[in-house]
Design a protein that fits this description.
With 154 residues, the protein is of the alpha/beta class. 48% of the residues lie in helices and 23% in strands. The protein has one domain: 3-Layer(aba) Sandwich (Mannitol-specific EII, Chain A). Strands 1, 2, 3, 4, 5 and 6 form a six-stranded mixed beta sheet that branches. The longest helix is centred in the first third of the chain and has 16 residues.
Length: 154
Amino acid sequence: MELVDLVAQEAVIDDLKCSSKKQALQELSRIAAKQTGLHERAIFDVVLERERLGSTGVGDGIAIPHGRMAEINQITGLFARLKEPIEFDAVDGHPVDMVFLLLAPETAGADHLKALSRISRLLRDKRICEKLRGAVGADALYALIADQSSKAAA
């Protein structure tokens, strides 16, 4: 399972405007609903429920909100670079400017964890994060994600 299998080109958003964690999760849920055909509120509720267990702000300006849903039949991701960093209750206390939303079927089991691991590994690489932060436009962001995905497969 590669990142390009999880994230469609139209699921990469540049300069997402939001002023709070809740608003970011609402916007991401709205966009994910368009991608998946699921209800926006159902996505938001699942992601918010997971956030209540502990922040998915993993540090270094990155958050990986995620959740499992019975209604979804394949693991699906969405990447957004925020227009302005927002407070996200991250483990390091720093604001977040890049968010990778991941939705998985309730039956995904180990595949869900593998997808989270792949995303985490990508976003832990400081050089890749610098490139993502410096990329111009959603197409360039997607190209970087696809390029890293193909390198990981090689």
